[in-house]
Amino acid sequence: MESIELKSVIMACHLEELTTEEQHLVELAIEATNRSYAPYSRFCVGAAVRLANGVEVVGCNQENVAYPSGLCAERTALFSAGAQYPDTPVEMLAIAAKGTDGELQYEPIAPCGSCRQVIIEAETRAKHPIRILLYGKKCIYVIDGIEKLMPLTFSEF
Ligand code: THU
Q1: Does the active-site annotation cover 74?
Q2: Domain 11-149 - what CATH class?
Q3: 41 Cα nearest atom in ligand 1
Q4: What is the number of the ligand 1 atom nearest to the C-alpha of 112?
Q5: Integer Cα distance of 40 and 139 in angstroms
Q6: Beta 131-135 vs 90-98: how paired, if at all?
Q7: Does residue 78's CB lie within 6 angstroms of at least one atom of ligand 1?
Q8: Which residues on adjacent β-strands are paired with residue 98?
């Protein structure tokens, strides 16, 4: 038996170091936290997607009294983009969150496993990696391609 190392390198930076488009997408994700419907967890997540045609689509978590019926911010944004622009590739995704204290998270917020799986599908459709921007007050993680967050992805083909 041999061990195989799965290595993943991501970047950490500050808002000013991002391009204007990236900064704008992060701002949209932050703004979207204010429209989150999270009466149960009080954890407000915002997401914003930038498509190849320059259109930006936002999403925020939508909770439900029957808990599994709710949906994360990332999937709300990605599914909305897919519903409106089915043939336009997703280029970037920004995520931000406010905790129960109403403050933006200090550490960058990372997508849950189900959202990672949906991001994989968006990359497959786009036929290229998606740049993922994870906002935290401390720093922003810049991740080029979901495989860095979810190695050994399931592929049907
Ligand atoms: N949530 C997201 O919106 N995105 C994630 O990637 C993780 C969790 C939401 C789901 C739920 O409404 C709240 O955060 C607390 O888990």
Answers
A1: yes
A2: alpha beta
A3: 15
A4: 6
A5: 28
A6: parallel
A7: no
A8: 44, 104
Ligand 1 near 112 CB (within 6 A): yes
3 state DSSP class of 98? strand
pLDDT by residue for the chain (157 residues), tens digit each? 999 999 999 999 999 999 999 999 999 999 999 999 999 999 999 999 999 999 999 999 999 999 999 999 999 999 999 999 999 999 999 999 999 999 999 999 999 999 999 999 999 999 999 999 999 999 999 999 999 999 998 877 6
Domain boundaries of the chain, sorted by first residue: 11-149
Q: Which of 22, 74, 91, 123 is catalytic?
A: 74
Ligand 1 center to 77 CA (angstroms): 13
The position carrying tokens 């997607």 is 49
